[in-house]
């Protein structure tokens, strides 16, 4: 029984690099994209706002799985055109990159909502103070944005866990992450304890991540407590 | 393309029914989880919060697949009989189950309602805490029994507090139904895959599937907004004219 456990763990841990790289890079790029998008949203330009809103509705209103399949299987339709730029085609058709792209776009949509909500809840006085000092919109955002992100951190840590959980979907397009290896093992042995092992690994990752997020949150908000 | 509209519509109805059944079952479970988590006997409450934390940290796909694998194994072992040894004596627990292969739909509902319940119980707990203790005391002073206080006074207010959170969860549940295509339920996602296997036009059909999911979520968002408006009608500030 215990030998099996160790064996499963050994196999499943081979998927750790893929899960971690997808998760961490996804979180970082989605966070950066969200900061940019919420800055753009706060410019109050009619066209930009409409485009970003549509993007948010599309990516928050449909399942991540559909987006993943659309990005992975979709471009092959335009193979004739895309084959003319082989290196580009190779990159965008690799499963890892597709999973990364889908995760980033999906998470950025949710994160933009979080950040923009926080940006809007910054007291009006701060905006006015910056305006009174003669700052333009870009300079004001530089001041207000860090403040808003600090406020949004507690909600954002939820989103971080969601991204890591979302990486499991990458196993549906053939990325061999933790879930991919456990599916493969399950095909060979049909044993429930495989999923217990995989669950423990995910628990560990998410536990660590939430702890890190909590420490960051504490550090970021020290001056307010 | 004409020939695929009917199967797609059928698959959409399966997705919707999956979501609705999971919502109802999940709601019942959510209430039970909330009660257990605020149980006066502390170990039960601790176990329940540990369970909640665990499920929330696990990927949804893992839970769906694990239940699909685990449920038949559990039924099979029950069918074969489990030996329970108590040291001085042992007996076998055996339940006769004629068909040890559970329906995928059942597995899907189990997984989705579990997921919904875990998240919704958090919202319900928050809503329960948001109602001041004075109301419970006032009801007791008026001679209402505990169950009456709960059903007549606490619960209607809880709904109002919990509604935004619960409706958010409903939208997530709707999107999570796509995951059950991994366990052979012929839902919208699975049907789309079948059609793509025949037509070899993945972009078009996944795009159509995305549109259907989008339409469903936007429509339910509209309905939810209406319900929310109605339930908080008397809380909204009256205009100056009506005063």
From TrEMBL, chain B:
GO cellular component: plasma membrane
Transmembrane intervals: 14-36, 57-75, 203-220
Organism: Gilliamella apicola
GO biological process: transmembrane transport
Family as reported in the entry's similarity comment: Belongs to the binding-protein-dependent transport system permease family.
Descriptive protein name: Arginine ABC transporter permease ArtQ
Pfam families tied to this protein: BPD_transp_1 (PF00528)
Source organism phylogeny: Bacteria, Pseudomonadati, Pseudomonadota, Gammaproteobacteria, Orbales
Topology in the lipid bilayer: Multi-pass membrane protein
Alphabetical keyword list: Membrane, Transmembrane, Transmembrane helix, Transport
Compartment(s): Cell membrane
Domain ABC transmembrane type-1: 12-225
Keyword Transmembrane: yes
The UniProt record lists the keyword Amino-acid biosynthesis: no
InterPro entries: ABC_transp_permease_HisMQ (IPR051613), MetI-like (IPR000515), MetI-like_sf (IPR035906)
Main location: membrane
């Amino acid at each position: 029984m215990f030998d099996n456990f160790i064996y499963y763990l050994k196999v499943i841990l081979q998927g750790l690099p893929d899960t971690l790289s997808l998760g961490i890079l996804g979180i970082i790029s989605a966070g950066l994209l969200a900061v940019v998008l919420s800055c753009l949203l706060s410019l109050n330009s009619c066209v930009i706002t409409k485009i970003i809103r549509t993007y948010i509705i599309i990516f928050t209103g449909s399942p991540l799985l559909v987006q993943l399949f659309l990005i992975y299987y979709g471009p092959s339709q335009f193979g004739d055109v895309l084959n003319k730029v082989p290196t580009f085609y190779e990159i965008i058709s690799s499963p890892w990159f597709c999973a990364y792209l889908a995760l980033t776009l999906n998470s950025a949509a949710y994160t933009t909502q979080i950040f923009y909500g926080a940006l809007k809840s910054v007291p009006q006085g701060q905006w006015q103070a910056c305006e009174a000092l003669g700052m333009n919109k870009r300079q004001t955002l530089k001041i207000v944005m860090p403040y808003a992100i600090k406020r949004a951190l507690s909600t954002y840590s939820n989103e971080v866990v969601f991204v890591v959980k979302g990486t499991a979907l990458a196993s549906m397009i053939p990325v061999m992450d933790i879930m991919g290896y456990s599916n493969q093992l399950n095909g060979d042995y049909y044993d429930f304890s495989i999923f217990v092992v995989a669950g423990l690994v995910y628990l560990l990752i998410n536990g660590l991540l939430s702890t890190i997020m909590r420490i960051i949150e504490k550090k970021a908000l020290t001056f307010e407590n | 393309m004409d020939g695929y509209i009917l199967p797609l519509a059928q698959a959409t109805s399966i997705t919707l029914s999956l979501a609705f059944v999971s919502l109802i079952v999940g709601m019942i479970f959510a209430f039970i989880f909330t009660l257990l988590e605020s149980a006066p006997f502390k170990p039960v409450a601790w176990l329940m919060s540990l369970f909640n934390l665990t499920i929330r940290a696990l990927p949804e796909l893992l839970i769906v697949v694990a239940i699909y694998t685990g449920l038949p194994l559990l039924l099979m072992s029950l069918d074969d009989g489990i030996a329970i040894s108590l040291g001085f004596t042992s007996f076998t627990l055996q339940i006769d189950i004629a068909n040890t292969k559970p329906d995928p739909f059942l597995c899907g509902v189990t997984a989705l309602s579990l997921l919904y319940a875990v998240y919704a119980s958090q919202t319900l707990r928050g809503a329960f805490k948001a109602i001041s203790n004075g109301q419970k005391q006032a009801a007791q002073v008026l001679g209402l029994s505990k169950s009456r206080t709960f059903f007549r006074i606490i619960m209607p207010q809880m709904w109002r507090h919990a509604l935004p959170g619960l409706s958010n969860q409903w939208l997530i549940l709707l999107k999570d139904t796509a995951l059950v295509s991994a366990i052979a339920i012929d839902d919208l996602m699975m049907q789309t895959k079948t059609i793509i296997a025949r037509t070899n036009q993945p972009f078009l059909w996944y795009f159509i599937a995305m549109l259907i999911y989008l339409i469903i979520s936007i429509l339910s968002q509209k309905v939810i907004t209406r319900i929310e408006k109605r339930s908080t009608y008397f809380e909204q500030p009256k205009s100056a004219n009506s005063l």
